[in-house]
Amino acid sequence: MWALLMELVCLGAGIHWKFNLGVLSLGFYYSNERSFLHRELTEMIYWALMYAWFGFIVLHDLPILQLGSFKTVFGSLADLIIACVFSLCGIWAHTTAQNDRLQSSIQELDLRMLVDKQHVETGASRFTVYCIQNLISQRSTSSGQLQRLVGKLWEMAMGKVHWLEEEVLQALESCCHGSDTSHPPDDLLYVLNCSEVDLPQFLALTSSDQVIHLIRRHVRHMDTVTKTRLVDALQRQHDFYVNRLQQELVVELLESTTGDELRMMKDILDEGGDFYNLHKLVFHDLDPEMYSRALNHIQKEGQHLAKQYDQGKAPIKIVSDVDDTLYGSGGHFPAGCDHRFPGHQVYPGVLALFREITNHRSNKQREKPPKDEEQTGEQAGFSSVFTRFLGYRVHDSANPVWIRVGRRWEEISVTETETVAQLQERVRARALEDQLLGEGDVSFHPPQIRVWSNLVFLSARPHAYKDYLESKSYKLFRRLRKSGKLHCMPTLLAGKLKSSGLAFIFGVVLLYPRNIAGGLFTNVFLCWFCLGVLPMIFPAVLLAFAALVAWSFYATSSLRKESRVNASWRYHQPGQHTHWR
């Protein structure tokens, strides 16, 4: 028995340095999401190697498999097979994560009513859509990504474009009337707005810059919907933050949009329901020069737009906190301090308050047109959107209501005695008939003038890596929006990792147990355990995190009721009415 235990310990020590090396590599990878490891090709290669490395450790040096005289039949060939299989698993996991981030709800919105002229399908545009679909179907799978990886390396060495991309480029050129930029490329606009084209996937799978150059030549012919779809698709590209050409195209799309059209673009970009929003685009993704151009244009247009409204009628953004404002924290540190409501329960009336503030401002905007009737230059586009929106009606009905069961809005007429509950049941019945998922959408105003994202939530939770910490809040937002409780899809602005981390540590120190003896004993025990025991088991990079988690858990569990911070929030006494502050 003793010999068996010693053999297990020796085998564990052999795994230790390999495991440490892998963990240190992961720590370096996650420490900076703008490093060279996060480029498209290097990240795919990195995850293939990491999966192969950990798979080799687990299956080659697993103590249970090494006991006795167990030997693999194939010897070193088995190790190679293990590494290859786990590499493919790494490519599959990376491809799945990337495809999920390329999925955009903005691309699925039915925005045709926001366009003056509908794009007509032709033979050239239909063939281009087919070529793009063929490219996506062959390259978006895991095996296609592996072929694309090999093809990219081959293209970098030989300087040749893959035949699938070459076919798409030729089809796009045929949609643009060759090199003539004087006429609007109707076929190209149809392709960019076609619901059968996954625009983010298409741009991700075309490695050639010729597509970007082709789109840039025709920016002046694009409507606001096309520009918005392009900005959203470009922002989701893997190497957007280092791709100068893509950033220049995005800034040109922003600068070519003015007045109320720009406001509509900004609101739609914030309607996506994930962390790809306007704030991330301007403040995190663009380089300093592009950032200055975009911010100056938005500021200038905002000042011009504000002058067109009377006081108290300009569009607004509602800014709110999340914890202890939108939903309760249950008094758990570090989320919040309010014990009156259980955790993750939406505060009564707060969603109705957001809706009423929005409706009040919208009604004021519709009282009369902007005060300046004559507009010049950059203000010429102002109010043209709302004029077109207010004049749009499918048919004259006494009580019009617009419903969207799938992708398209449909105007229906309701009776004066029909309730909202009956209307919702009507929408659900239509969804079941058409075999569509989801709750559907109901609008009592034309979809063109419905409120887009005018709600912004501030969160102390830091932005650590991609959308790992923000995804929890966005899941709640999507659930509330789907059930009709939220009038629009909000935007979430996360905190910074440095400031949020320091605030968390400072809060833990303030909430440390008042019992000096107990605190001293806990402190000594944690130091001994973390500095003496854990290095024998885990890598050194995990020590600080383990100590912080243990310390914060002990502090918060012991002071949940008598904390001074919590006590300052207990202003509601029995027998009194609850007041909002």
TrEMBL record:
It comes from the Eukaryota. Residues 364-374 have a biased composition (Basic and acidic residues). Keywords: Membrane, Transmembrane, Transmembrane helix. The chain crosses the membrane at residues 15-32, 44-67, 73-93, 488-513, 525-554. Residues 360-379 are annotated as: Disordered. This is Uncharacterized protein. The lineage of its organism: Eukaryota, Sar, Alveolata, Dinophyceae, Suessiales.
